[in-house]
Amino acid sequence: LPFSTPVAMVLWITGASVHLIVALIVLTRWICGDNPRDQLSPALFLPLAGIVIGPAVGAPLGFIELSWQMFAIGIILWPVVMALLFERLFFGAKPRDDEWPLLAILITPPALAFMSYCELQQHRLDPFGHILFYAAVFFLLANVALAAV
Predict the structure, then answer these.
(1) Alpha-carbon distance 1 to 4, whole Å?
(2) DSSP string of 99-135, one letter each residue
(3) Phi and psi of 80, rounded to 5°?
(4) C-alpha of 73 from chain center
């Protein structure tokens, strides 16, 4: 963005469009597919993390409503996926050895949502911004605690 606004606009429009399509495809597959519990993984946050970071650049480019739309989609789906993941972690199959590092992804949604929310709010920090920030800090501390175990 600081180097070329026209290039940033083309890249953002392309990336945001593709990401919204991917999010729709992923959501459709989640709803219509056969989803074994043991395949529920923190990696499912990746489509959400991408969609919630869009406003961090979209808002400065002037795409305010599209940025709010992307933020809304991510902020609504994040707790749903989080609840499903916690249900699996607490009551279902424990993560395989190769899945433990994926728990670091839990930090991503609130951290990226905080960045985007700050941009959408023109860098004014309100109570919701504090919630997003401290949720990211909590998941960072949780990952440090899990690494120590």
Answers:
(1) 6
(2) TGGGGGGGGHHHHHHHHHHHHHTTT---HHHHHHHHH
(3) -65, -50
(4) 10
CA distance 36 to 70: 28
Whether the CB-CB separation of 143 and 94 falls below 8 Å is answered with no
Q: What is the pLDDT of residue 95?
A: 78
Distances from the Cα of 20 to the Cα of 66, 116, 133, angstroms: 10, 16, 25
| CB-based contact 82:125 (threshold 8 Å) | no
* pTM reported for the whole predicted model: 0.86
pLDDT for the residue numbered 38? 67
Residues near 42 by Cβ (< 8 Å), separated by ≥ 6? Answer: 85, 99, 102, 103, 104, 105, 106
Coarse DSSP helix, strand, coil percentages of the chain, rounded to the nearest 5 percent: 80, 0, 20
Residue 83: the pLDDT is: 86
Walking along the chain (149 residues) 10 residues at a time, the average pLDDT comes out as: 92 93 85 75 72 92 95 90 83 79 86 95 96 96 90
